[in-house]
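We modelled the chain as a single entity of 595 amino acids. Its sequence is:
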Amino acid sequence: MNVEVNNTKLNTWIKEVSDLCQPDSVYVCNGSKDEYDQMIKTLLDSGIAMPLDKRPNSYLFRSDPSDVARVEDRTYISTTSQDEAGPTNNWMAPNELKAIMKDLYKGCMKGRTLYVIPFSMGPIGSPISKIGVEISDSPYVVINMHMMTRVSDRVLELLGTDGDFIPCLHSIGAPLAEGQEDSKWPCAPIDKKYISHFPEENLIWSYGSGYGGNALLGKKCLALRIASAMARREGWMAEHMLILRLTNPEGKQYHIAAAFPSACGKTNLAMMQPSIPGWKCECVGDDIAWMKIGPDGRLYAINPEAGFFGVAPGTSYETNPMAMDSIRENALFTNCALTDSNEVWWEGMDGDPPAHAIDWKGNDWTPASSTDAAHPNARFTARASQCPVICEDWEKPEGVPIDIFIFGGRRSTVVPLVQEAFNWDHGVFLGSTAASETTAANIGSVGNLRRDPFAMTPFCGYNMGDYFKHWLDMGDKLGDKAPRMFYVNWFRKSEDGKFLWPGFSDNSRVLKWMCERVDGKVETQETPIGLLPKEGDLDVDGLEVSKEDFQELFKIDTDAWKTEIPDIEKHFSKFGDRLPERLKKQLDEFRKRLD
């Protein structure tokens, strides 16, 4: 081991894993540039990484076709009681799951190096941050963890001899016999993949996948599934939310945290460039927010991540210029296409498609091909510090104070452009019933309605009924210092199928109205579903939206809303006696308002 490890628990764990997995060598990471460069060289030498001439210090990777995304059906929340995991999680008893995985781990790192990756989720030393240590046999994981978390020997110093950390064990599950040639993307078959969480022990075990959140264990595994369970125990919040700072022309700052299911424009909103003169938007985080109540009684948030792991297809200078500028150099690309000019390409990128490319599977591709050039879940990895609109306070140890919570989904009808919750409990009701029409990014028939409470269905590390209660409890603690809560729908369509709202930078107009509500500058009109803007209060100067379309954007069809009630009842019934009485009361009040 090249870096000295003084932490007793960590040394014991490294030895246990080494004895079980039997690697050829052990390397403790220090987070340095030299280390990163050495890992890149290892990946180049093995042919796994491909350099990109047009983007300095950037590389393309192609995964195995069986290893392209999170594998929800192979992802487990393992608690003593199945009821503790709840109806939204796959469950297996800890003893049973550990026995299966220990058998798989036996000798699984033969022929490989065991990398010890000490990392901080959040700024090192922040009172909101947590320390994790990932053990992995993948240099691809090491370089991505370098970007997505704060890998550093300072983390080991902070741990000292007896500091605590979250152990994250990962193996690609592809041992090498002596003289055996490695594959271009080593991983285990799908039925041998396991992404396992043991929230009662703050423990993560992952086996068989080398990709994304299955392998970068600081991301969804630690930052949401384990952290959400820790947050409930310790009285804070770990949420699947972007964080942005909005500054008005007078220089007043507002901080907004927003939760959206996939394919609802979350990253675009996090890096938005406002279309309203004088307003400025800065990104604090694009995916995850950890929030604690500060000494002044307000809720403060940090982005626990250090980078962006974004979906490439659909990202362009038209949809998200700041993301495109963030990946011009020092970026990693996975499962994108490679053009003849040695540049990455994906569907939805600016300009015409290339006349010829090599697709994500390594095959020839032309615009006439029947398949996509890039995988729909192709990714880019880049440091957040490279984003042109990264907020100067994004690494502030105490976090930024949250003024506004936004929930939302993709709905072509029924749901208006924006509504404000009557109060905190009503806001929790809106978040707990959040729904989106499924798209190609979701599993299921396109257009079906899928409830995704707080956009946390795949990421809540315990019973979601208890998670709803935790939101209510946090509101009780925050009292009159609680953030205001809103629900948005950028995706409402006209009868002939056209989007009624331009979206993207014009979403700043909706955020401006929210800020004016926080400041008490505008009144609202009360409707059965929530508080809506009064006519003339939403800034539409210079916007080409007809009066008829604008009216349609805010039309409340009570009969259509009544048809939502049975679906909400069915959704809530899943949680049985774990569903808080206060949410049942909210549903009863909603019914009465619609009558």
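As a brief sanity check on the tokenised model: The chain has three domains: 8-30+62-234, 238-303+394-594, 309-386. Confidence is low (pLDDT under 50) at residues 440-446.
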